[in-house]
Amino acid sequence: MAKGINYGQLMHKALRQLIADVLAQVARDGLPGQHHFFITFDTTHPGVDMSASLRERYPGQMMIVMQEWFENLAVMKDRFTVTLNFGNVPEPIVIPFEAIKTFVDPSVEFGLRFDAQDESQQAAEEARAVPEPPTPIKPQPGGAVVSLDQFRKS
Fold first, then answer.
1. How far apart are CA 43 and CA 55, in angstroms?
2. Which residue of 1, 111, 126, 141 sits 20 to 30 Å from the alpha carbon of 39, by its own alpha carbon?
């Protein structure tokens, strides 16, 4: 039996799917109008694949900009790949959706932020979210019994 419904986790999953849908549309049709993206991600997250030189320059976190020049954008179920230009050197990058910390499209003032939570913090929040069962009230001896007959309609 489930311990409870983790709405935060479900919401993050849905918002990451929104990012996947947006990127899939861009991969298929290109960036429309003035749309462009700033995507910040955790470079240490499992599944992030990038060159050693980029990993050395960005050991913990990196922001990429998808605007004027990018190619080979492909979206999979759990990640996307894109080739970006770093100093006139094309660099392919693989980014799992779970590694994304922020996704911003400033052209329409849209942004998402995913706060990282370690497992112990998440477990503590789940424990607080589950209410304790109520304590039964014991009847006190010598209490008066009230009949409800006087309040019933005849």
1. 7
2. 126
Token pair for residue 123? 């477990």
Lowest-pLDDT range of 1-5, 20-24, 101-105: 1-5
Q: CB–CB of 42/101 below 8 Å? A: yes
**Which residues touch 20 (CB under 8 Å, ≥6 apart)?**
75, 77, 80, 97
d(CA 47, CA 95): 7
| pLDDT tens readout for residues 51-100 | 999 999 999 999 999 998 899 999 999 999 999 998 889 999 999 999 99
Q: How far apart are CA 48 and CA 94, in angstroms?
A: 5
- Please give the pLDDT value at position 149: 58
Which segments of the chain does DSSP mark as H helices, in order? Answer: 7-29, 52-57, 119-129
CA–CA distance from 63 to each of 84, 97, 116, 126, 128 (Å)?
A: 12, 14, 16, 31, 34
